[in-house]
Amino acid sequence: MEFQTEFNFTLPKGYMDSSGVLHKEGMMRLANAGDEIIPLRDPRVMQNPSYLGIIILSRVITRLGRLNHVDTITIEKLYKADMAYLQDFYERINSMENPSYECTCPSCGRTVEVAINFSEAP
Q1: Dihedral pair phi/psi, residue 16, rounded to 5°
Q2: What is the pLDDT of residues 104-119, one digit of tens each?
Q3: Are 29 and 60 in contact, with CB atoms under 8 Å apart?
Q4: % helix / strand / coil in the chain, to the nearest 5?
Q5: Is the entire prediction scored with pTM above 0.85?
Q6: Burial 97-110 (b: 16+ CB within 10 A, else e)
Q7: CA-to-CA distance for 65 and 72, rounded, in angstroms?
Q8: pLDDT tens digits, one per residue of 12-52
């Protein structure tokens, strides 16, 4: 099983650039610790904590349509529906997954992957 670090997305509305080109398809990578810590020192976040999400998204979106560089100005110009979609998408791909372990059956020797579901633990 390969560890996936980048995920495709499609915006509900799309980003309209200054040339009138609509960009809907994009790619977001998994966040690292720096993506959430470094923006906390940004003066824009200190002045308005709501700006944190804009900076984080500008760091983790690696492509939007034909744009290979997405900055805070691009994120600021997104429609509200697209911003909400990206924030939800970010949370979904970065949420912790339940761990799984490879186990070998002592009877037949077959190796299987067993998911541990903490929500069902006593």
Answers
A1: -95, 115
A2: 888 898 888 765 443 3
A3: yes
A4: 40, 30, 30
A5: no
A6: eeeeeeeeeeeeee
A7: 16
A8: 999 999 999 999 999 999 999 999 999 999 999 999 999 99
